[in-house]
Amino acid sequence: MSEQEVIQSNNAIANPEDLIPGFTSKQSLELALKAANILSKSTLVPKDYQGNLPNCVIALNMSARMNADPLMVMQNLYIVYGRPGWSSQFLISTFNTSGRYSALRYQWVGEEGKDTWGCKAWAIEKATGEKLEGSTVTIAIAKKEGWYDKNGSKWQTMPQQMLMYRAASWFIRAYAPELAMGMHTEEELYDTFDLTPADYEIKVEQEVQQNANVEVVDIDKTQTREGNSKADTTSKTDSLPPDDDGPGF
What CA–CA distance (Å, rounded) separates 228 from 26? Predict the structure, then answer.
């Protein structure tokens, strides 16, 4: 095959039905940009994506890799101090609908109200029929890791839900890491950083607060003021009487 034929083959337009938005080809990127342009103009997407084409393109690429709805990805992807994380409900839903495993179930251990209370997630792999079990998460672990005593921690107000969320995220990252795409859940990120509930916001809110403290300098006006200042100085200098060098004879 000649070099020209190779170039033509690489530039060939793929079947529109097989084309998905992403970065795999020029046509995929063009499709992603068109779709992102539409989504960025919608008021239904989170503010972090409104008017932001790059964020929309990334969300579209992630949704294509996960075979998930783009709007669902946008509504369940959170940014905590610059790190993206999934909502636990979305991650569990993605696992349950993957078709490769049975729905997640939980096995409880210890006594409720005690530090030994906890659970582990499990599921059946459909291809092999094997029962897969995740690591056990207990209140004792939450306390030792510092999650339980954090300011505004949900471990104290809804421990059962937090135990299930953490057990599920550990299980999915152990047996189906491609579904989580290497990212943690928002609850895990919250436990990782020393944040207050007011800080637990999506990135757009942080940017609004940061930009509110930025002073915008108008260069043209600054130069104009400097020019006027120089002009005033020159004017004042010209208006001064000449130095008295003595008689003119």
Answer: 53
